[in-house]
Amino acid sequence: MSDNSSDKIAVVLWGANNIFSIADAGDDRVYEARIKGKKLNTGTTQYNPLAPGDRVVYEAVGGPEDSHPSAMIIGRVDRKNELSRWNKKRKQDQCIAANIDEMCVLSSVQSPPFRPRFVDRALALGEYNRLTMRIVINKADQGIDDELEERAAYYRQIGYEVSLISVKEGVGVDHLLDQWVNKEILLLGQSGVGKSSLLQAIFPEQDIRVGDINMKYNRGRHTTVLAKAYPRPGHRGWIIDTPGIRELDLYGIPPEDLGFYFIDFIPFAERCGIRSCRHVHEPDCAVKDAVAQGKILEDRYDSYLNSLIVMEESARKSKDWNYNKL
Ligand SMILES: Nc1nc2c(ncn2[C@@H]2O[C@H](COP(=O)(O)OP(=O)(O)OP(=O)(O)O)[C@@H](O)[C@H]2O)c(=O)[nH]1
Ligand SMILES: [Zn+2]
């Protein structure tokens, strides 16, 4: 549905078992909300009708004096974009977050070491979903070696923002926050890179241990809180944490299209001898030539091959794989 000027609109912060936490910038309140009539008409077949970042039209239940305000959700405002994944158990598409202004791929210099495969997979997924992306490398206090320096320079050269920060030493965090004013940011990162530490630094008054939510609403059911939005003071933007995302797969992308989502390949791929070139063993492959000439970073090509093998494997194995999502 599209929003009407008289509607009350709130942002979904998170949800579990059809109970949603929604925040209205207008009255600066957070409501515990349920869907009116149990089912929301969203026009999609996703497992979850709402995800963090969704704008919803709602009606407050009770008065403004209520210390635990509750609400009924009447509709969902059309999404400008979304990131979803395949829920293997339910065999259904599951939205991680909606209306994302920037997807931030968080990694670290050491412990855990910088993982280019994860970063490149995340970038491909973001490209596929037409998201704007930033790479943030935390733990800069541990010292950046030449290899990582080269990698960061390459990412910048192909068009991604790269930020080097140290949450521990407070370096770079304020600059990031300046860039994120009035934006909705989705944070993705592997365990241990400092995602909770970053969130805690940004929201010192919040208790970032997300396990609590799961325990409260998760008894006997198998719902994981995939993502949770934190509104910045004064609703000057939202930051969405993804505690329930342990791994990323390139859901939705047909393996033969993967090359389109490695943006540094695109100018070369147009010159490949075969139109449907996968840039593996095909003759006259301009992408492979560019790798040999150092125009494409070899390690990015390794990331591509690595993902392609995994995707082709799972496409063969699984009939659940939804090839024709788009
Ligand atoms: N040296 C250094 N250590 C950091 C920095 N930021 C976080 N750490 C440490 O890295 C470890 C992991 O940080 P967390 O914030 O728990 O990482 P996480 O990404 O939330 O990991 P999970 O909780 O497993 O998802 C902790 O011991 C932090 O103190 C940093 O900038 N520099
Ligand atoms: Zn090719």
TrEMBL record:
Cofactor: Zn(2+)
Residues holding Zn(2+): C272, C277, H279, C285
Keywords associated with the record: Cytoplasm, GTP-binding, Hydrolase, Metal-binding, Nucleotide-binding, Ribosome biogenesis, RNA-binding, rRNA-binding, Zinc
Pfam families: RsgA_GTPase (PF03193)
Domain CP-type G residue range list: 86-248
Primary localization: cytoplasm
InterPro entries: G_CP_dom, P-loop_NTPase, Ribosome_biogen_GTPase_RsgA, RsgA_GTPase_dom, Sigma_54_int_dom_ATP-bd_1
Gene Ontology cellular-component annotations: cytoplasm
Cofactor detail note: Binds 1 zinc ion per subunit.
Keyword Ubl conjugation: no
Residue sites binding GTP per the record: N138, K139, A140, D141, G189, Q190, S191, G192, V193, G194, K195, S196, S197
One GO term (biological process): ribosomal small subunit biogenesis
Subcellular location: Cytoplasm
EC nos: 3.6.1.-
Annotated EngC GTPase domain residues: 98-246
Highest taxon, organism lineage: Bacteria
One Gene Ontology term of the molecular function aspect: GTP binding
NCBIfam families: ribosome small subunit-dependent GTPase A
Functional note: One of several proteins that assist in the late maturation steps of the functional core of the 30S ribosomal subunit. Helps release RbfA from mature subunits. May play a role in the assembly of ribosomal proteins into the subunit. Circularly permuted GTPase that catalyzes slow GTP hydrolysis, GTPase activity is stimulated by the 30S ribosomal subunit.
Similarity remark: Belongs to the TRAFAC class YlqF/YawG GTPase family. RsgA subfamily.
Cross-referenced HAMAP family: GTPase_RsgA (MF_01820)
Subunit structure of this chain's protein: Monomer. Associates with 30S ribosomal subunit, binds 16S rRNA.
Name under which the protein is recorded: Small ribosomal subunit biogenesis GTPase RsgA
Record organism: Salinispira pacifica
